[in-house]
UniProtKB/TrEMBL annotation:
Protein name, entry field: High-affinity branched-chain amino acid ABC transporter permease LivH
Principal subcellular localization: membrane
PANTHER family, per the entry: BRANCHED-CHAIN AMINO ACID TRANSPORT SYSTEM PERMEASE PROTEIN LIVH, HIGH-AFFINITY BRANCHED-CHAIN AMINO ACID TRANSPORT SYSTEM PERMEASE PROTEIN LIVH
Family note: Belongs to the binding-protein-dependent transport system permease family. LivHM subfamily.
Lineage: Bacteria, Pseudomonadati, Pseudomonadota, Gammaproteobacteria, Pseudomonadales
GO molecular function ontology, one term from the record: L-phenylalanine transmembrane transporter activity
Protein localization: Cell inner membrane
Length: 307
């Protein structure tokens, strides 16, 4: 029973982190699915969303507002607005002027934007870790006294529920809305969609905005979960989310979700049963192993070259 409780605890921890990875990974996979490029500034947008949420929470506390639902909603809305605006700006500044050129040029442009945003936050907020308030406290405990007890915190439940809501809303948006159908058309054939009257520039901008908004949600959730943020907060998470997108199949939204969960669980299991020092080795080793047998990722589809 103790072994089962310990395994369940690691599984819960892994699904928690994996859910956040999935939210960030969707931004990578949507942009790649639409224009065939990787947005390497996406991790920094996630980081800016976390900082924006923290500033909003601090401002509300200064005004004496202490009702938790209001604090969470205002922080989430502010983070999504600022991150979405940042995602739109990245597309206009770093991608649109170089779209259609050699694929190395947008890559360098995105890396430059990533470095710019990192240093901007360094200058604006400092390089030190900043504590993030634990707004959602408490947990359910499972197990007998004097032995290992499995814990399911309210924060973990919040992450699960929020991720499920976001994924469901995104799926409905892509499948049911006019803009979602236009996104699918552009991902299939950008040139033909343009000829059919779809405003492809608007759709590409909308893709960056949607991905940035989901990253902001993850920024708020993981900020509260870890309890601190710093200017490099987005670099590591962005790298892991990009790995999750590749693992699940870059360009596939369900693949990004699946890849994020697999990556989170593999990290948690490695930390729990081996050592935290090996979690990245196991995660990236798993990525290499899967790509050796399925180069397009778990749910990715091979590109068909049009002649």
């Amino acid at each position: 029973m103790q072994d089962l409780l310990y395994f369940s605890q690691q599984l819960i921890n892994g699904l928690t982190i994996g859910s956040a990875y999935a939210l960030i990974a969707i931004g990578y996979t949507m942009v790649y699915g639409i224009i065939g490029m990787i947005n390497f500034a996406h991790g920094e947008i996630y980081m800016i969303g976390a900082y924006t949420a923290l500033i909003a929470i601090t401002g509300l506390a200064t005004l004496g507002i202490a009702w938790l639902p209001v604090i969470l909603i205002v922080a989430l809305v502010c983070a999504m607005i600022v991150s979405s605006a940042m995602g739109w700006a990245v597309e206009r500044v770093a991608y649109r002027p170089v779209r259609g050129r050699h694929r190395l040029i947008p890559l360098i442009s995105a890396i430059g934007m990533s470095i710019f945003l990192q240093n901007y936050v360094h200058l604006a907020q400092g390089s030190r870790n900043i504590g993030f308030p634990a707004l959602i406290e408490g947990s359910f405990q499972f197990g007998s006294e004097g032995a290992f007890a499995m814990s399911l915190s309210y924060m973990q439940i919040t992450i699960f529920v929020t991720t499920l809501i976001c994924m469901t809303a995104l799926s409905l948006f892509i499948s049911r809305s006019r803009t979602g159908r236009a996104c699918r058309a552009v991902s299939q054939d950008l040139g033909m969609a343009n000829l059919l009257g779809i405003d492809t520039n608007r759709i590409i901008s909308a893709t960056f905005v949607i991905g940035a908004a989901l990253a902001a949600v993850a920024g708020l959730l993981l900020g509260m979960y870890y309890g601190s943020i710093d200017p490099l907060f987005g670099f590591i998470a962005g790298l892991k989310a990009f790995t999750a997108a590749v693992l699940g199949g870059i360009g596939s939204i369900p693949g990004a979700m699946l890849g994020g969960l697999i990556l989170g669980v593999s990290e948690s299991m490695t930390s729990g049963y081996l050592s935290g020092e090996y979690k990245d080795v196991v995660s990236f080793g798993l990525l290499i192993l899967i790509l050796l047998f399925k180069p397009t990722g778990l749910l990715g589809k091979p590109e068909v070259e049009k002649i």
